[in-house]
Every structure is written in structure tokens, then in C-alpha cells.
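Supplementary material to the annual report.
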Amino acid sequence: SPDYHFGLEEHEGISELFDCD
Amino acid sequence: PPQTPIRAAMYSIQQLRGELTSASDQPSGNLIVYFKNCTVDPSEEITKRVEQLGQIFCQKFAEAVGQRCEGLGKERFTLGVQLYYKVMESMLKSEEKRLSVQNFSKLLNNATFHTSLLACALEVVMATYVGNSLKNGNENGNETDLCFPWILDVFQLYAFDFYKVIESFIKAEPTLKHNMIEHLGRCEQQIMESIAWKADSPLFELLRQSREEGPGEQAEPPAT
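Predicted assembly:
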């Protein structure tokens, strides 16, 4: 979406961000 | 018919409601399957937390806007819960595909994850309504007090934790309108540029820990 700068890598998602990987 | 600012804003409220007409304020069948697949079933905690956060939200909403508007607060909270469960299901489906796992016990038993996700869903609802009242020209209305980061104070949520869900939320909810995606992007910027650096932010502890872990952990040399 041109309205937002996505910064997560392919291997990153909500699980990693909350240390649940 | 041509779009006046009010009509455009009203349209987005109608769109939000339209997107959520088929969404329930209870976990869907798919979500219940995810909950059952967890090592520890989070169902009861999730239901209890939504109730508790609902009471806090309605009380703070009434304090901010006026006691006579308590019903409005309930209405907005219900919309937020519908969006919360809808996005949660979409997030889990994409994580299932990405990680090839069905057991999300750690994530679904993480209270901060749920509070952040619900806060983000409520921020979308609140920004849609506040956007409407601003377009109506009543900048001085109480509702403008409910702009971000009001929801962080209501749920006593660290901005850093709220920040974690924003990108995944936008990816998980393709029906978000561009003005709402822009709004969430601005929230992110506001967090990164100021709110995340408040004295009690967990960010400082994480930075301290990463420094203690030593140069071996430095992902990039300063030059880059």
C-alpha cells in the first residue's frame, strides 16, 4: 500500500515481535 | 452523488460498520479451533480480558465525553471487539501459512498481544468517528480528546507494545481505507519519534540488554 512503509522482513511476523517464535 | 467531506467521513463510518456486519463480537468457529489447538487453551482468559477492558473503556469514554454518552462508548467498544476478533483470525491464518504451525499457545496466552491488538482495533474505530466529528467542523468537541494516544492511557499500554501490532494489523485487514492506513502510519511515527521514549518505556531496558549482550550481537557495523 502506498500509504504505509512496511518494514518487517519475510521471516518476521507478529509471533516474533511478541517473542513467541 | 459528489462526495462532500461530511459525506466522505460518514461513508467511512458506514464502510466500517459494513465491513463488520458479518463479524461477531464473539470468537468465530475458526478462532475456537486455534484456541483448542493451543497447549494451554486461552479462551477463558480472552473472554475475561475483553470484559474487563470493556468496562475500563466505557468508563474512560464516559469520563472524556460525558456520562450521557456511555451507551455510545459501549457501541464503539463492540465494534472494536468485532474488528479485534476478525483481525486476530486473519493474523493467525497468515502465521499458520508462514510458519506451518497450528499451535499458537505462546502468542494467544500473551496478554500484551491481546491488549495491543484490541487497542489497535479500537484506535481504528475511534479515529473513524473522530475523523467524522472533525469533518463536521466541531474541532472543539470532547471527541477530539479521544485521538491517539488516548487509547494507550486507557489500557495502560506501553506505546512500544502497541507499535508491534500495527504493521501486522494493516496486513491482516485488507479492507482498511487508505486514510486509516495513513492514520496508523502517523501513530507509528508518533510512537517512534516521541511516545516510545518516555521515561518508563520498556525500550530502554531492551536497549540496555542488547548493549550488555555485547558487540557480538551488533547486527550492523556503525558505518552502515
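The longest helix of chain B spans residues 70-99.
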